[in-house]
């Protein structure tokens, strides 16, 4: 089901299938779990993802997340993936980031 609700505060495109920063970062962490990333790097990534969630929540939003139902969606999936890509890029290697870009567009549509 595709719901068209509102605009992304970053790229100003229409947000379809809104997902909040919290649920999105949970998906990212789940995806990373079986990628053999050291716990040191993993905790760095988690720290940056938390920062991303906090930053995103500073902008008030009326768009409900399709996963948890909270009104805090202000970025589209595309912008979330871009932000997460930057975080993972700084903390892992090229191979993982290639995988992430390939997988994630598909994975994110499976969450609901
Ligand atoms: Zn966007
Ligand atoms: Zn949510």
Notes on the structure:
The protein is mainly α and 112 residues long. The chain has one domain. Helix content is 54%, strand content 6%. The protein has four helices and two strands. Strands 1-2 form a two-stranded antiparallel ribbon. Strand 1 and strand 2 form a beta hairpin. Helix 1 packs antiparallel against helix 2. The longest helix is centred in the middle third of the chain and has 19 residues. The site of one zinc ion has 8 residues, from helix 3. The site of one zinc ion has 7 residues, from helix 1.
* Count of discrete domains: 1
Q: Secondary-structure element order, as H and E?
A: EEHHHH
Average pLDDT, rounded to a whole number, is 86
State the shape. globular
Strand order of the largest sheet: 1-2
Largest sheet: 2 strands, antiparallel
Uncertain stretches of 5 or more adjacent residues: none
What percentage of amino acids are in beta strands?
Answer: 5-15%
| Count, helices | 4
* Rg over alpha carbons: 14 Å
Bound molecules: zinc ion
Span from first to last CA? 9 Å
Tell me the structural class.
Answer: mainly alpha
- Strand element count: 2
Helix content: 40-55%
